[in-house]
Every structure is written in C-alpha cells, then in structure tokens.
Amino acid sequence: xxxxxxxxxxxxxxxxxxxxxxxxxxxxxxxxxxxxxxxxxxxxxxxxxxxxxxxxxxxxxxxxxxxxxxxxxxxxx
Length: 77
Description:
With 77 residues, this protein is mostly helical. Helices cover 43% and strands 0% of the residues. It is built from three helices and no strands.
C-alpha cells in the first residue's frame, strides 16, 4: 500500500451520521453507519475539481430509532 495509497482519512461518528443523511436525502438510500464511512470521508475532504471518485455505499441494517434521529438532526425534508 505504501506505493499505491495516496493517504487516508479518519471520520468521526457525527460525520458518519451526516453522510447517512446525505445518502437518504439525495440518493434515496438507507445506509448503515459502517456503510456510510467512505461517503463521510469524501464529504469531509476537499476534492480536486474534476476528480473521479467512487464510493461503495452498503447495508440497510440500521436501527430505526438511530436512523430517525440522524434524519431529524440533519434536516431531513
């Protein structure tokens, strides 16, 4: 990985929750917290203009109370 990896980004729980809300509101998909970590990293970092970035969103195994809290906290429409 040292030769190929450009870097890494750490995200916290709040950034993951925000990414879950973005996925729900903009993509209309339910993503579990661990499945939203990559999206949270992309949203947290400034990306070069024109960058092509792929993100895997996975899992809908999320507690309904947690998901409701996430949507309420992040201005769900």
